[in-house]
Structures are given as C-alpha cells and as structure tokens.
Specification:
Length: 474
C-alpha cells in the first residue's frame, strides 16, 4: 500500500468525504479504503471521526417482540450508545429479541464475536450477565467505550469483554445460558489486517473448518436445554450463491445441536433501483437481501431420528391452477426476498420465475407428476414442492435444456417435538456437488402483513416464509 495515498485517504475520511468520492479520487475500491482505516484505527469503522454517540433513550420506542420467522427492521436502532459505525455490526433489535425470548434476568449470555459490543449493551440494558470475546483488541476497547453509559437498573449485571478466540474459549463446560453471536461471513468484510485467528480473513472452505471448531466449543460451554443463536448470510461467487447459511447450520448440527427456528432477517441496505435493478435483469442475478438467524438448542435428551420426507402434497400447489395464475405483466423482483400477499404469493412467485428464467418453454411439476413430458426440452422446470426423490432428478434433468433452470419450492415444517425440519437445507445438501447442477440463488418468499399480533409471544415463531432454490444446469 502506498503510504502517501493511505495518509491522504485517512485525511479525507476525517474530513467526512464519502467513500464513493474517495474511491473515484484515488481509483480504489471500498475494500481498499476499509483496509486503510482498519490499519490506521485498529477497527473497521465507517466514520473514524465519530467521537460520541448515543441517544437519551435507553430502549427502542414501541418495541414488540417478533412473532414470525421473517424479521425486518426498517431502521437499525440507535438507543443507548448503539450506532452503525462498526462495519457489519448487527442491529440491536436482533440481540434484544433473542435475549428477551431465550434468556432470563440474571442469566449469563456469551457473544464470542463481540465486535463493537451490540450484544453487551443489550445485556447491560436487560439485566443479563455478559461475557464477550473478540480476536481484535481494538474492538474490545470499542466495546468498553460503548458500554460507558448510565442505566439505573437495580440489579447490576456483571459485564466483561476480553480478547479471546471463539474456537478456544476459556469458559467452563455447561456454564452459559445463551449464546448470541454474529460471525464474519467468511471474508466479505475483513475486521483486522494482521490478526492470525481472525476468521474474516478466510476463504469459504477454511472458514467452515474453523466454524466447526466454534460450533464444538459452543456445544461444550452451553447448558443443556439452552440456546445458541447465530446470524449468518450467504455470499456470491462467480454469479452463483454460496449457501453459507446452510453450510454453517450443518456445522452446528453435526456438533450436536438441533434447530428450533430458522429465521429470515431481511436486509434493507441493498439498492434495487436504477443501475442495480437494470443489472439484476441484464446479468440475471438477484441482490442478496436476507440473512439467517439460526436458533440452535442443546437438547437434554438427544433424538437422532431423522423425520421421514413428507409425501403429502401441500395444498394449493396444483399444477393446473398454478399455470392459470401466471401473469406475464408483472414487475420483476430484483432481490432475494420476494414479499407477496398470502393469497397471491404462488402466482406472483411462479410469474417471476417464468418471466426471469424462461421464454415460453417451461414446465411445472409436482410430487404427483414427476415425469416431465417425454422428448421435450424446457428452459425452466419448476418443482412446485419439495416432494421429489433424488433418483428422479436425472430423468428430470434430461428434459431441461443446457443452461436451463430448475426451481425447487421448499417449506420449513414444525415437527411435533417443536423443532424445525428444513427441506430447503436437505435439498441443497443432497444436490450439492451434483455434476450437472449449480445452485444459483436461494430465494425467500415472505408474506406481507405476516405479523400476527394475536399470537402469544411465548410460543414458537409462526413460519411465514418459503424458499425457492434456483439451480442452473451446466
Ligand atoms: C460481524 S462482526 C460482529 C459484530 C457485532 N455483532 C457487533 O454488533 O458489533 C464479527 C467479529 O468477529 C471477530 N472475530 C473474527 N474472528 C474471530 C475469532 N476467531 N474469535 C473471536 N472473534 C473473532 C471480528 O473481529 C469481528 O469483530
């Protein structure tokens, strides 16, 4: 790195110049600017001149616990000392919801990817004891600074934040009541420039190997029947999606956890107008607009039985009926989250698939008519439910053109024991590495107006989303 340019960039940042202007001025990208700032300040922050933050409010206005599986916060939240300066930090609404739902006052909450301390601040406000670790000493210093605010709770929780590595925790086994953590998403954002244990410097495969160690440690330190909640998002590589969310979930499951909720956290910071909208159509990709909030449980009694694949047709998926619903005049979706009404979602979703991925040559198939029309090639096949058998896949693929798209609808199910069974994860795993299929998109279809205010907050979340997995035949 040219030290003179780095110095100039820091000066421009301190003077409040916008990243895009700095980028143009020195012909550098955002990652380069982030690297300069991280080297200079020790932390990856968007505004190095920000001195004091915070508002007088110590809680969000009109806060309500989330009740369904789709979480969407229009503003990130700026009560107490919360602010968005630490790159990629999570909205305080997320740990607040998790802490209130899955722990009690006086419990011990652990965040081993503590960052600038969002979870720590929420624990202080909500009377939970807190143990925080981060590989980066400067992030821990920032956490401590962000914890400097008065709050008049009767109970003074014990809040600690130290340098530490999420893979090797200095914590007793079976001692933590809740883990609430937000890892880097492989190397999308780099949090340090030279910390050896920093997982944000790792490519996907190495990142997953290290997350396996994090999952193992999590299982060791958490008490039985308690929860470990992780936020993770997908990535994009060579126009295809890398299903990091499902891959990380597998690591926690293979280390002993079960899944009680798979929550979709919508992201509102991606642009879908003008330039981005046009590019989404021109290059045929969707802008990543969701992350997964995975609620794992360490069950007292373990049950390793896998639920059988449900061969019953979900209602409302009749192929004839779907074909009638197709509307070729719709405005195409450009993000990975499609929000449609409960009544029209199927027609809207299929219309989008047909208009984005096929000319007129499509076929819709479901569990009861798995054999596609013989001797006819399509450039889009929609499996309108997840009830296919892997063995049928080869004959299905014969009916798909080269470069054609296979779209698979999947719906999470709540099992009788309260856990989630996710055919989307199951399908992605079973087709991973298929010689003729590459996963291109993971689309979430969510219902608007889905917040059912009458639901009790203590129950499981209402499943309010579906997935469409998009594969390209190669
Ligand atoms: C997405 S950020 C967490 C942001 C945090 N939720 C917040 O709101 O400020 C991920 C954090 O993981 C830290 N990290 C990376 N590798 C780590 C490791 N092996 N152990 C502990 N922390 C690590 C990074 O320094 C970064 O602060």
């Amino acid at each position: 790195m040219n030290p003179a340019i780095a110095k100039q960039i820091i000066e421009d940042k301190l003077n409040g110049m916008h990243d895009s202007i700095i980028g143009n001025k020195y012909n550098v990208n955002l990652k380069f600017i982030e690297k300069v700032i991280t080297e200079h300040t020790g932390v990856n922050i968007s505004n190095p001149s920000l001195k004091k933050t915070g508002s007088k409010n110590l809680s969000p206005k009109n806060f309500e616990l989330e009740k369904s599986t789709v979480w969407s916060f229009k503003s990130r939240g700026n009560w107490a000392t919360h602010n968005g300066n630490y790159r990629g930090n999570w909205s305080p609404y997320i740990p607040r919801n998790i802490i209130l739902r899955y722990s009690n006052e006086g419990d011990v909450v652990l965040d081993y990817f503590c960052g600038a301390g969002t979870t720590a601040i929420e624990c202080k406000l909500l009377n939970r004891n807190f143990k925080g670790f981060d590989i980066n000493r400067s992030a821990i210093e920032l956490t401590k600074k962000n914890l400097e605010f008065g709050c008049s709770a009767l109970f003074k929780p014990c809040i600690t934040a130290d340098v530490g590595d999420a893979r090797y925790l200095n914590i007793e086994s079976d001692s933590i009541d809740l883990i609430c953590a937000h890892p880097p998403y492989s190397n999308i954002i780099n949090y340090t420039t030279d910390s050896p244990g920093d997982l944000s410097g790792l490519e996907v495969n190495s990142f997953l190997e290290e997350m396996d160690k994090v999952a193992k440690e999590s299982f060791r330190v958490i008490k039985k029947d308690k929860y470990c909640v992780i936020l993770i998002g997908d990535m994009r590589k060579n126009k295809n999606v890398v299903p990091l969310g499902f891959l990380v979930a597998e690591k926690f499951i293979s280390n002993g956890f079960v899944i009680e909720e798979m929550i979709i956290k919508r992201q509102h910071n991606c642009k879908t107008t003008g330039f981005w909208y046009k590019n989404s159509i021109k290059y045929n990709f969707l802008l990543l607009a969701h992350e997964y909030l995975l609620v794992f449980k360490k069950q007292g009694k373990r049950n390793n039985k896998k639920p059988a694949l449900d061969k019953d047709m979900p209602s409302g998926y009749s192929v004839k009926a779907i074909k009638k619903l197709i509307n070729k005049d719709i405005c195409l979706e450009a993000k990975t989250v499609w929000v449609f009404s409960q009544q029209n979602w199927l027609g809207d979703a299929v219309s989008n698939l047909v208009m984005r991925y096929s000319g007129n040559s499509y076929n819709i198939i479901n569990g009861s008519n798995l054999k596609p029309v013989k001797n006819k090639k399509h450039n889009l096949i929609i499996l309108s439910d997840q009830n296919y058998l892997k063995e049928d896949m080869d004959s299905l693929l014969q009916a798909l053109d080269h470069d054609g798209i296979l779209a698979v609808f999947c719906e999470d199910k709540r099992l009788k024991n309260g856990l989630i069974y996710s055919p989307a994860m199951e399908t992605e795993k079973s087709l991973r590495g298929h010689k003729n299929l590459k996963i291109k998109e993971i689309i979430v279809v969510a219902h608007n107006g889905g917040r059912n205010k009458d639901l009790p907050t203590n129950d499981f979340l209402e499943i309010n989303h579906k997935y469409i997995l998009i594969y390209k035949k190669t």
